Amino acid sequence: MLTSPPNPGSRSPRPSSNSDTRGARLPGLSAHPVVSGEPGGRWAARAKAQVALLGPGLAVTAAAVVCATLANRLVPAATPAVLAVAAGAAMASVAGVDDRLRPGLAFVSRRVLRVAIALLGLQIAVPQVLALGWQSLAVVAVATGLTFAVTPPIGRRLGLSPGTSLLIATGVAICGAAAIAAMRESTDLPDDDEAAASALGVVVLYGTAAIAFIPLLASAIGLSPAQLAVWTGAAVHEVAQVAAIGAASGVLAAAVTVKLGRVILLAPLVALTTYRRRRMTAQAQHGKRPEPAAPPQHQKRPEPAAAPPQDGKRPEPAAAEPQDRKRPPVVPLFVVAFLAMVAVRSTGLVPGAVTAALPGTTNVLMAAALFGLGTGIDVRKLVRGGRAALLGGIATAIIAATSLAGVALLV
Hints:
By secondary structure, this protein is an all-alpha fold. About 70% of the residues lie in helices and about 0% in strands. It has one domain. Helix 1 (about 40-75) packs across helix 2 (about 80-95) and helix 9 (about 225-235) packs antiparallel against helix 16 (about 385-410). The chain is globular.
């Protein structure tokens, strides 16, 4: 029996108990049926798909971080970040990286890395850095700026790519792996993975060597504890490596504070480099397509007529030029978040329990991110890349010698 359509102004009758139950209300649920097309169903399906996609890589990363943390307790000189990079590189070189792991590894090497860098800012209180005095700050600024400026030209002289030279300069001059990852995220390098692998290898090699040699050299030349603290913070690559030297030498707090003063320079140097590379790219693109001079009117030939469309459709417009694409900001959002966290910590409103837990949390996140980056390292290429190791040694010598001279003169 057919029924007439309901009157738009009338209310629809409630379904009876023996009517079609596909849209009927179930006990304890809304009157609206829950179908996969509703927001809740879509979100649940999307979350399940993300877990299936990222889960294998995240599980392997979690296992690697646990192993790196346990190994660090047995060998304190080997930081979790260094061990995680080594584990990732070993896995990629020995067993290879399964395609099922790649989405999760990409997630930790980018998203988790950005969170770790932002949280690093919560460890830096500007008043504590300023309390070091202008002498220590001058040593940090000159040593960092000089190393960052002269390392890329030396790399070009050695025949290294601009990307490799830039990332080695960044890692040695600022704060090791975190700075390398931040610069890599902010700039469009043509040899992204290979450059990052070379720079990470250099930081691991010379930073680990510094843990043994810096205290020995300081003792041999007779540095005071205050001078050792400034030299360690101004010359050693990783925060964790500085902490290892400071803890062994009794200058932990001062050395780490000097080092965090160096870490603050990450944001302006990343922004400056991004801006300069963007200008150079724009100038290069402009130089490739110079505008021809207009010929005199009596020599100008008529423009050839466009070919008629074969299928009656209007021809598609030319593809947009590269400069028309949406470009990333000069200062990436995670660097802005880093500066915001520095400002928050500097207010003194962060609870002590939070500041006490931050180094451990940041180290775990950084180890996870660096494990993901480590899986992109080809150890065989790294061993053959002697010029990258040479550049890293030169850059390390520059920052160590410059900061030591500054310490001897000012501190």
